Amino acid sequence: MPEATQDPVEEQRFSRDDWYGEEITGRHYVRCEFLEVDFSEAVVRNSVFTDCVFGNVRFNASRHVDSSFAGSAFKRCNFFDAEFTGCKLVGATFTECELRPLRVIGGDWSFAGLAGADLRSVSFQGVRMREADLTGADCGGAVFADVDLSAAMLHAVKLPRAELRGSDLSALDPLNADLAGAIVSPEQAAVLVTSLGLQVRA
Predict the structure, then answer these.
(1) Which of 37, 83, 117, 151 would disulfide-bridge 103, Cβ 3.0–4.6 Å?
(2) Is residue 116 in some structural domain?
């Protein structure tokens, strides 16, 4: 789990700071605001951002490893080519953000707010996304491999051509989602058929 090594910085505002390419390790921020800060190509390790607000922040090609952004709000941020590995974003919300082509490997994104997000071709692998809000999200061609989507909000989610094998699809209603061309395993197909009220028998 993420574990900061420095004393927390609380309730401070950072405006137009240039952190391009910085190595950010072991830092701890609580209820801070980051406005138009440049995190492009930064590497964030073992750092904690709790209940922070990020507005118009550039995360282009940044790398985030074993860090936490729990309860944080991202507004109009750019995550082009960003990568999160083993990070905790429980309860984080994303509003009008550019998230393509984001890559997420492991970590906990439970309760994350991604309603209406453009997640086309985004990749989530081995991520916990319990009760995440993906209502109306466009996930065309995205990868959700071995993702825990139990109790996730998936109403009107668009998943055409998405790779879904290994993921928990128990919360997915096939009648209220676009699944054209989505790739699932035989076991997942049985779950989806059962959700339609059909019985699968040999």
Answers:
(1) 83
(2) yes
